[in-house]
Amino acid sequence: MVFKKFDDRSRGNFEPRPMVKGDWKCSECAVAITELPFEPAPDRPIYCRECWSKKRPPRFSR
Fold first, then answer.
1. Band of pLDDT at residue 10, cut at 50, 70 and 90
2. Average pLDDT, integer, range 7-29
């Protein structure tokens, strides 16, 4: 059995996500956030990269 080695080219040609520009504050540390990869819902918290990485569940590692 032959396994194909994956690299960046074999994952497809995906365009970068459009960023939504705005003026928000991180719900945890209150740092300014000017771009998000989604339109935030007014009733949900928004986190900066650092706070999100602390809250995110750990990834499965091999």
1. low
2. 82
Residue 10 token pair: 């074999």
**What global pTM score does this model have?**
0.64
Integer distance in angstroms from the first to the last C-alpha of the chain? Answer: 21
Q: pLDDT grade, residue 12 (50/70/90)?
A: low
The two tokens of residue 6 are: 């994956």
Q: Using an 8 Å Cβ cutoff, are 38 and 18 in contact?
A: no
Cα pseudo-dihedral 36, 38, 39, 40, rounded to 10: -70
Token digits of residue 47 = 């986190």
Tokens (6 digits) for 44: 């949900």
